[in-house]
Amino acid sequence: MILGRILGWLLLAAAIVTLGRDLVNWWYQGGWSFVPLGEIWYQLHPRSLQGLQPLVQGGFWPPLWDEAVVPVLRQPAAAILGGLGLLFLLLFRRRRPRRAGFLR
Q1: 4-34 burial string, b = 16+ CB within 10 Å, else e?
Q2: The model's pTM
Q3: Domain coordinates in residue numbering, the chain
Q4: Does the pLDDT of residue 104 top 60, yes or no?
């Protein structure tokens, strides 16, 4: 459980850093342009991104790559990372034990 919360906080921190990068680019260039998730992934580890396509097209349903994976990779990285971070924090939140009895 603690690893899920740590991963959630790390993803949220990455989303904030990416949003900061987008805001700095907006400030200096004068136009809004976000960094897509695929570009960040390619900068971090290009071989894993390049290996994902044959895995999805060969092992799963081939149109899944064009209809699902590519649109997600084109989305703003800050939104995807932030959403995943919030999802992890929600799924792995600390839960209090329930008290037995009618009145709580």
Answers
A1: eeeebeebbebbeebbeebeeeeeeeeeeeb
A2: 0.81
A3: 1-33+78-94, 36-75
A4: no
